[in-house]
Design brief:
Elements lengths: L1 H31 L22 H13 L13 H13 L13 H13 L13 H11 L7
Helix pairs in contact: 3-4
């Protein structure tokens, strides 16, 4: 019986030792692995917010604001920061109060756009700074005014 306990104790010690050696061997292997070169890239995310417009509809409103004297950048149908800065400048210059000219489409920009669209006779569902379904429908209808501007 004593030899049975001794055998179990010895087996436990051997198992623990084997696990320890395996762990150390794994650590040694990991430490010996060649260093990987890390490539770091900086990516600028350009937020595009067409407010429900298709590419061709967005190109139309880019042409409109360009023809009004504000530079939206490329006429590419992607309403990003440059396009929205142009629209904010346009809206502010005409007294529609779009807030900061920062290219961000926030509540002030939406309210300014709603004021402009309401002035033109479109139903935006109110001037609340929310680009809800009626504001998006009015924006879309405006994009078709005169068959587009491009």
């Amino acid at each position: 019986m004593a030899s049975n306990r001794t055998a179990k104790a010895l087996l436990g010690i051997i198992t623990a030792g084997a696990i320890g050696v395996g762990t150390l061997a794994g650590a040694a292997t990991a430490a010996a692995a060649p260093a990987q070169q890390t490539v770091t890239r900086t990516i600028t995310i350009q937020a595009v917010n067409n407010l429900g417009l298709s590419t061709s509809e967005a190109q139309s409103v880019q042409c409109y604001v360009r023809d009004a004297g504000f530079n939206p950048g490329a006429i590419d149908g992607q309403l990003g920061g440059g396009s929205w800065r142009a629209w904010q400048g346009f809206l502010n210059a005409r007294g529609y109060n779009a807030g900061a000219v920062d290219g961000q489409v926030g509540p002030n920009t939406i309210s300014g756009l709603q004021r402009f669209l309401v002035y033109l006779g479109y139903d935006t569902g109110g001037i609340d700074g929310d680009a809800g379904p009626k504001t998006r429908a009015a924006w879309k209808a405006f994009s078709y005014l005169g068959g587009g501007w491009c």
